[in-house]
Amino acid sequence: MHPHLLSVDDLSRDDIERILGRAESFAEVSGREIKKVPTLRGRTVINLFYEASTRTQSSFELAAKRLSADLITLKAAGSAVDKGESLKDTVQTLSAYDPAAIVIRSPHAGAAGLVARWTSAAVINAGDGKHEHPTQALLDLYTLKRRAGSLEGLKVWIVGDVLHSRVARSNILAFMRMGCAVTVCGPPTLIPRGIESLGCEVRYTLDELGSADVVYALRMQRERMTGSFVPSLREYAARYQIDGKRLGTNQLLMHPGPVNRGVELAAEVIDSPQALIAEQVESGVVVRMAVLYELLAGRGAPSDVREGAETEPQPA
Ligand code: ASP
Asked: Which of 8, 60, 165 to mutate to test the pocket of ligand 1 (most atoms within 8 A of CB)?
């Protein structure tokens, strides 16, 4: 496998299958009373969060702790970044601790790729601007596979603000790599021109939504919108909101969170049995454990950790 996880493009189908399988074995650990394995004991993981996050940050923290790594979490607020320290200086400073992995969330597309040039640690992209969010895509695959049994041939509609969404980009690549057929749908102003070149189809209305097995709704990314992309959120909701009338009883519903209730999703579907939203959050921990394991357990690791790679996780 690639030494870093910057994009879903770094992963082959085999890599993805292996990570999902590994996550399954960690799910068993998460069911125990003591949810910890010694795999990364003595190794340091640094979480560098330059942008707000609830799910991604907390699940990476839990993942590192459950693998027994030493963990440092730095947020831009409260760190020397506030004093104007550049990303490069921060990474070089933190490299003094000899981290095994740096997990980075940044508002800037390409930030994770830059960090990978400045450190010998494995770098995991936890969301870089509008670019990618590969661990979100992996946990979505994991969640969907658990519910649907198989991913091959599933028809997935990704609906909403595709233009500003790193989740959309990573998920189009990931769903397609696993054999799903992907359609993106939204107002023309929120669908990037040329997106078909990724291999997906494009629709500008929900008229054919009934053909989907899975509806993956995106958050309206108001903080990333510089102009006016839709006349109003009310108008957006009238045409594109997934509600109880539009979502069929056999269709599954996903959303990466946080949800704008009443905008992209109506309250009645958020809490419906078809919604996988809570399971997506739950899957975040085991999938991120699996990613840390994949990147670190075979890479410059002490021999006991390498041996661990071949065996099932043991309780700490
Ligand atoms: N939580 C996801 C992200 O960080 C989705 C979103 O914010 O809309 O990209």
From this structure: 165
pLDDT single digits (tens) 197-228:
999 999 999 999 999 999 999 999 877 666 67
User: CA-CA distance, 182 to 198, in Å (whole number)?
Assistant: 10
Locate the ligand 1 atom nearest the alpha carbon of residue 133 and give its number: 9
pLDDT greater than 50 at residue 309: no
Q: How far apart are CA 316 and CA 314, in angstroms?
A: 6
Q: What is the mean pLDDT of residues 261-273?
A: 96
For 69, left (φ over 0), alpha (ψ -120 to 50), or beta?
beta
Calpha distance 16→181 (Å, rounded): 17
Within 6 A (CB) of ligand 1 lie 127, 133, 166-167, 219, 221, 256-257
Give the number of other CB atoms < 10 A from CB of residue 180: 22
Residues 6 or more apart whose Cβ sits within 8 Å of residue 166 = 109, 127, 128, 129, 130, 131, 132, 133, 136
Q: How far is residue 81's CA from residue 39's CA, in Å, rounded to a whole number?
A: 32
The predicted structure's pLDDT at residue 85? 73
User: For residue 251, how far is the Cα from the chain centroid?
Assistant: 22
Span from the CA of 167 to the centroid of ligand 1 (angstroms): 7
> Using 50, 70 and 90 to split pLDDT, how confident is the model at 82?
low
Task: Give CA–CA dist 208/21, Å, rounded.
Answer: 34
Whole-angstrom Cα distance, residue 202 to residue 200?
7
